[in-house]
Amino acid sequence: MTTDLEHHHARSTRLFDAQGAFELPWMRAAFLAVPRHAFVPGTVWVWRAQDDRYHPVARADDEQRWAAMVHHPTEPVVTQVDGGRPVRADGTGELPTSSISAPDAVLTTLAATDPDPGSRVLHIGTGTGYDAALLCERVGEARLTTVEIQRPLADAARERLHRLGHRPHVICADGEFGWPRHAPYDRVLCTASLSRVPFAWIAQCAPGARIVAPWKSTLQPAGLAVLTVDADRSGACGRFGVPLTFMDLRGQRRPDNPLPRVYTPHHWEDSRYGTTTLPPDFLDDFHARFALGLQLPGVHAVRTPPTDAVPAWWLSTGAAWAYISAGETYQWGDRQLAAEAEQAYDWWLEAGKPEVFDFGMTVDGGGHRTWFGSPGGPSWPVAP
Quick one: which of 261, 325, 322, 332 has its CA closest to 296? Predict the structure, then answer.
């Protein structure tokens, strides 16, 4: 049976129409003009919990499944694993290293970026080239510079873009350093998650330019920073928008949870016992976890269901850990992580359970800091 890819494309359009997902008219026109399936390689990857690996799905073997994945409205598609060379002898992969973002996430970042026609745009993370094609529809190919760190991905994206008649500047480089040759930019859109906004981007922007980047803490990997560059380009400031999770910027990959390295049975024997008022689900609320992530930079968390089914949380840094369950705590190391978490959670409650949109970030010569309410409100430094 032949798969009607245009049918999938049209169905996605109708779905987003019904949801009001096209926040601006130009977004709908761009979405219609760019066939998503033209930017997806013939083999994509699916994670399976049974073996914790990524398995290939080839269009040639199962076109129906491939097409359904490509046009799923809310799911990203992994397009590369292990840097293009699956490490397992059986052809499965362990680490996703490139993807095409879910259509709803693409629309969210485009709405936040909202470039005017003719704006100069710097796009970090070309990937398959799909986002670049959509931006070409809005600003024109000559005004778009899109940067991809992997040469094979950059070359493949350039070829796909050319095939559809788009010839933006596709650069193979480390996007963390921007691309000064085509500066100044009116918009910077990063489609990879980061924990620190590179100052090079600010320096390459025009006054009043907008920077949109998925932002993460070690505690909460989902966020979206929307910043405006100062008139003198000495910094940028703005609020967090609709939270999104993307693959990490290559130079800012989220560090692994240090708990397996710092926990030992001997440390458990030496741990400090205590009690806490933290409820069992204190990190299950997204907005609470986001707020605590700002206040506890560098702290990781993992949830484990013990045998009695009462949730348990492990907090950890490279030199300390805390186990929290049923109002009891065990802590080891140079910090009182359970007490710090309790203090941060109490602050969130007393502040009225603010949402992610109530927080913002300032980047300037003094570094990065996040804040609540306004830049002059309560603030916390971002971990280097």
Answer: 322
Helix or strand holding residue 15 (H, E): helix 5-19
Q: Which two tokens stand for residue 216?
A: 């993460």
State residue 368 phi and psi, 5-degree precision: -110, 135
**Rounded to whole angstroms, how far apart are CA atoms 93 and 171?**
27
Choice among 12, 98, 99, 101 that is catalytic: 101
The pLDDT value given to residue 1: 39
pLDDT digits (tens, 9 = 90+) for 136-146: 999 999 999 99
Q: Record the tokens describing residue 98, joined without a space.
A: 């490139």
Is the pLDDT at 309 greater than 80? The verdict is: no
Known catalytic residue at 101: yes
Q: Which of 130, 253, 259 is nearest to 189 (CA)?
A: 130
Q: Residue 240: which H helix or E strand, with range?
A: strand 236-244
- pTM flag (> 0.70): yes
Q: How far apart are alpha carbons 291 and 347 in whole angstroms?
A: 9
Concatenating the DSSP letter of every residue in 20-76 gives: T---SHHHHHHHHHS-GGGGS-SEEEEEETTTTEEEEEETTT-HHHHHHHHT-SS--
